[in-house]
């Protein structure tokens, strides 16, 4: 399934996403897949046998044949350079295999035991595991004020309730999204973890524990707490307490990879047929800085599937692992829940905990079928054509489950009239709880606003959720205010209703965020077309100014206005230009920054301050001059068209001024 957030790039900051490329765009045929059968043999009590409920037996030969039939074609069509897939079962690696290239130019194949990939936000699972180690040692209390463990203060948010580590691990701390300095390519611009979390605390937009809102900052905060409670740097802690006991010798959180690992690091690509990209450095390292091989990720999966044990080593006590996997925080029953760090992606009636992850170029998923003793990890080293990495990994998970671990889809039936009424109730525009709220970057939410549409057949369509064919998915109501996707019934959408109106809804398998009705004053349903029309009116006014002057000169006509009317005529056009250019520069800057995440950095601070100051002056000057021009025109003997157009200019500059105020162009600050 394709998931598009308020802005396409913001979704990728999970450090869920596009469709398989259209036929005709092919990468050079991949080299023969590299398989590794040197799996660690670690005993465990077998779980319920995959395939016993009607699926195919999960065996290495069948799995390998299936993947070999799908992956090369998918990578070619999606223009993805390479991928690694690892499947573990009953305490051992069933199959680990590389496809395509780690370095296209050198035709270096992906080796699952040696090639490092960037799991992105899947890295968070190591941070959460480190936290739980500190919990079982009595150094962290999940329900204590987070300030207990910090050397700076996080102020209470809405409601005055302090943040706890449980809130942090379930993404309910209430922080707005923070994207500045999230990714860079310059090691000199990579500050230590303590400096990252202290530099700026994102605004709290929800009361602690009340609303899931995915937060990279909160995860970085958790990593810093581990530093504080353990007394050693986060990188060192993970290496000593997770990598060492698991034998993960080819993994690192460090910004500067050790030379032996750097030599085996896969290159990252936007397109497999394009040029490689620089190594991505993650400022909030505990949220997504891991580099690891498929083989090492297998060890981590096995340890969690075996309740913290790996061979004769243990990273968590069994009761701690069980608490981590099963202690959920439900935001919208009956949807999937957040566990402690993991989140549920239950499928076919089976318990699954997971985490996905994306940098700009690497895209990964990890899924653990808890009761079946099965885990799967996939990582791709390219975004691919039209974001093909998203559908490829999504298809692998869904098809893998249906092939080897089948089960019932979600069923149910509603009266058609009631279903149509409920569809109309949920229809509208919505804000993602995971969003930038208090800075000028918040305009991305307006540009990518989520919309629910009620269809004539009683189903609904949610604009940001798309199938593998890149068409928005349709949802059929199966119980009051619970919908299932019409193509297979594997996922659900559920709404919370209060006083006859939908106040929020969520979607499987994304329990780390919800969608809430956009306030009418900030709704793109009217504001986007109004802003577009306003820009058009102002730019038309500015463009026609020199054109009319040229025409008058061509035909020997004199300028018809004098005195105050002439000054108003000229100044209102200067104001129109200032207002329009302020908005264009603002939105253009934000889109450019999200097109290259390295620009979301302190290097842009001077320009951000200039935008704030000059943009604020521009929109207010435009509005003030338009109002003054209206009074001059209506007091004079101008034509009715001139009077009408003076009203248009006031309305246009008023709309753009409101846009600038509502989405924080008007303001001061370079944090976002």
Give a nutshell description of this structure:
With 672 residues, the protein is an alpha+beta fold. The chain is built from 17 helices and 25 strands. The longest helix has 33 residues.
Structural notes for this entry:
- By secondary structure, the chain is of the alpha+beta class.
- The protein has 17 helices and 25 strands.
- Mean pLDDT is 91; it is low at 1-48.
Low-confidence stretches: 1-48
Please give the largest β-sheet.
9 strands, antiparallel
Helix content: 25-40%
Number of helices: 17
Report Rg: 27 Å
Q: Determine the structural class based on helices, strands and strand pairing.
A: alpha+beta
Based on CA inertia axes, which overall geometry fits? globular
**What is the beta-strand fraction?**
15-25%
Which terms summarize this structure?
single chain; 672 residues; alpha+beta; 8-stranded antiparallel beta sheet; 37% helix; disordered N terminus
């Amino acid at each position: 399934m394709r998931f598009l957030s308020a802005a396409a790039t913001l979704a990728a900051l999970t450090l869920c996403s596009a469709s398989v490329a259209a036929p005709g765009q092919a990468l050079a045929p991949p080299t023969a897949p590299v398989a590794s059968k040197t799996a660690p043999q670690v005993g465990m009590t077998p779980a319920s046998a995959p395939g016993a409920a009607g699926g195919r037996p999960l065996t290495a030969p069948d799995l390998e044949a299936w993947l070999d039939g799908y992956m090369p074609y998918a990578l070619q069509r999606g223009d993805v350079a390479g991928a690694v897939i690892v499947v573990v079962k009953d305490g051992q690696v069933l199959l680990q295999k590389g496809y395509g290239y780690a370095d296209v130019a050198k035709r270096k194949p992906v080796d699952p035991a040696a090639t490092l990939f960037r799991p992105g936000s899947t890295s968070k699972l190591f941070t959460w595991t480190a936290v739980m180690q500190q919990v079982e040692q009595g150094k962290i209390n999940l329900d204590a004020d987070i300030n207990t463990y910090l050397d700076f203060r996080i102020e209470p948010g809405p409601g005055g309730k302090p943040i706890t580590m449980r809130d942090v691990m379930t993404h309910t701390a209430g922080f707005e999204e923070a994207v500045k300095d999230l990714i860079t390519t310059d090691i000199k611009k990579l500050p230590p973890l303590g400096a990252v979390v202290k530099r700026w605390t994102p605004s709290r937009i929800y009361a602690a524990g009340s609303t899931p809102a995915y937060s990279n900052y909160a995860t970085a905060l958790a990593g810093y707490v581990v530093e504080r409670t353990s007394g050693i740097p986060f990188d060192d802690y993970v290496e000593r307490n997770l990598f060492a006991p698991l034998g993960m010798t080819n993994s690192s959180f460090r910004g500067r990879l050790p030379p032996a690992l750097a030599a085996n690091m896969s290159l990252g690509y936007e397109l497999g047929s394009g040029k490689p990209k620089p190594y991505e450095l993650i400022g909030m390292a505990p949220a997504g800085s891991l580099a690891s091989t498929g083989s090492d990720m297998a060890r981590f999966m096995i340890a969690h599937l075996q309740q913290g044990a790996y061979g004769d080593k243990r990273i968590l006590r069994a009761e701690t692992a069980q608490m981590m996997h099963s202690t959920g925080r439900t935001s919208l029953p009956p949807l999937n829940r957040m566990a402690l760090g993991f989140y549920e992606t239950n499928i076919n009636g089976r318990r699954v905990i997971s985490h996905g992850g994306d940098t700009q170029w690497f895209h990964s998923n990890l899924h653990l079928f808890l009761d079946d003793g099965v885990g799967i990890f996939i990582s791709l080293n390219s975004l691919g054509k039209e974001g093909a990495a998203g559908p490829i990994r999504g298809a692998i998970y869904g098809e893998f489950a249906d092939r080897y671990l089948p089960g019932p889809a979600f069923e149910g039936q509603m009266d058609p009239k009631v279903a149509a009424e409920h569809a109309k109730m949920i229809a509208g525009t919505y804000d993602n709880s995971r969003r930038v709220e208090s800075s000028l970057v918040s305009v991305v939410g307006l540009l990518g606003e989520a919309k629910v549409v009620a269809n004539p057949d009683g189903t609904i369509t949610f604009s940001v959720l798309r199938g593998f064919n890149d068409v928005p998915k349709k949802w059929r109501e199966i119980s009051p205010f619970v919908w299932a996707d019409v193509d297979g019934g594997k996922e659900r959408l559920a709404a919370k209703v209060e006083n006859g109106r939908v106040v929020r809804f969520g979607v499987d398998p994304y329990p780390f965020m919800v969608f809430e009705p956009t306030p009418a004053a900030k709704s793109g349903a009217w504001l986007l077309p109004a802003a577009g029309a306003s820009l058009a009116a102002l730019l038309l006014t500015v463009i026609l100014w020199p054109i009319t002057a040229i025409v008058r000169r061509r035909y020997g006509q004199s300028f018809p206005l004098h005195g105050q009317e002439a000054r108003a005529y000229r100044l209102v056009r200067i104001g129109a230009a200032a207002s329009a250019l302020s908005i264009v520069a603002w939105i253009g800057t934000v889109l450019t920054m999200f097109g290259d995440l390295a620009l979301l950095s302190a290097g842009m601070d001077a320009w951000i301050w200039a935008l704030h100051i000059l943009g604020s002056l521009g929109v207010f000057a435009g509005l003030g001059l338009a109002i003054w021009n209206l009074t001059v025109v209506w007091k004079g003997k101008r034509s009715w068209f001139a009077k009408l157009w003076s009203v248009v200019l006031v309305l246009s500059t008023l709309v753009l001024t409101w846009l600038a105020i509502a989405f924080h162009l008007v303001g001061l600050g370079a944090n976002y």
